[in-house]
Amino acid sequence: RSTRVPVGEDQVLHLELAQDIAQHFNKKYGEFFPVPKAILSTTKRIKSLRDPSAKMSKSDPQKLATVTIADSPDEIVLKFRKAVTDFTSEVTYEPAARPGVSNLVSIHAAVTGLSIKDVLHQATGLNTAHYKMVVAEAVIQKFAPIRNEIKKLQEDKSHLIKVLEDGAEKAKELAAPIYQEIRRLVGFQ
Asked: Where are the domains positioned within the chain?
């Protein structure tokens, strides 16, 4: 019964489907479900490091195109070092004219929480080769606590299983009254 849902640009269609279902249900059975609104992040879509005209995707066959949380710092550095840019060494944000460099700026802004303008200010005087390493380091720093927590959880499988079981139980407790009310509204009870 969420009213606002954080989604990426490519999940908007899924949310629109949820909105349609909520509206149809409400029209037929009375106001029950709120119609959820999307909360879009400022970083709309991260592009592939190897093909900045395509979105970054875990299903990309090119291993150097996508950065994952599980990547080691060395892997992240390699992927950014090999990121496609152009022959101009200045760091600018011009998505249409310089998609590769602009993608790096977008990634840098996303992981640091800085604006594009602030990121460009910090990059003043850097060439793109050096800037790639700055972005790689920012990504490494952003992912480090998450990667460490994943490693810790993987080492304690019994704790992880307990967390999953507790989460499943809590989800059932939260869903049960809503499920029962839906059954009542549609006449199954």
From this structure: 1-42, 45-143, 156-188
DSSP per-residue string spanning 124-169: TT-BHHHHHHHHHHHHHHHHHHHHHHHHHHHH-HHHHHHHHHHHHH
Percent over 90 (pLDDT), the chain: 84
* Confidence (pTM): 0.78
Picking from 26, 24, 35, 34, the residue whose alpha carbon sits closest to that of residue 185 is: 26
Residue 44: pLDDT band (50, 70, 90) is low
Identify the three-state secondary structure at position 183: helix
CATH topology for 45-143? Tyrosyl-Transfer RNA Synthetase (1.10.240)
Q: Which two tokens stand for residue 140?
A: 């490494």
